[in-house]
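Journal club prep — side note

Before the paper discussion, L.F. wants everyone to see what a predicted structure for a comparable chain looks like in token form. Sequence:
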Amino acid sequence: MSDKIHLTIDGRAVSCAPNASVIQAYAHSGEALTANVGCMGQGVCGSCRCLVRRDGERETRTLLACETRAEAGMQVSFIDYFAPAHVHHYSMEQLGDAWQLLDRLEAVFPEAAACRHCGGCDRACPRGLAVQDGVALARGGQLAAVAAVFDHCVMCNLCTLACPENIRPNHLGLFVRRALAAQGAQPADLLLRLRQQRRGDMAIDQTTLDDE
């Protein structure tokens, strides 16, 4: 009696050992690991994004093939990545000083203001990150919190594929993490308050200050 399990990957019947991951099952079937099918083909972690339906379940899930164990009857399809029409270009050298970081973030990722809070990015994330909250925190100037949300992001781009506004949340998170590391940014709450004052969103009662 064989101890192999049988599943379907990209429409092909595949057999593998019970303890194999989906990506191992795919590789052992003789298929090549190429771009969009495993980090060894593309050289980038998160490239093994796939859509999975387990036997007996109706729901499909977006997962990473390297950390998902193959199961009998499982159906798997690897997901190609297509770049949005607008790609965000920026340079750390041209970022300016840390006091301009919020303005630069808005200029590079203006789509973030259009977030419709549909939750698609959260559902798509195979790591269970609070992606939608990360975008909202960026809009609110809470940069350290943004960096914390995306700290375990593997840049699989599934949130980008799911976003109807082409926000590219993972790239926004990467921008914030890179900027904080490069700039040693000033306190985010102070940046936000100064920006609110410049825009007139936050009035300063000068008489109170004079009384003090």
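L.F.'s comment for the group: Residues 208-212 have pLDDT under 50 and may be disordered. Keep this in mind when we get to the figures.
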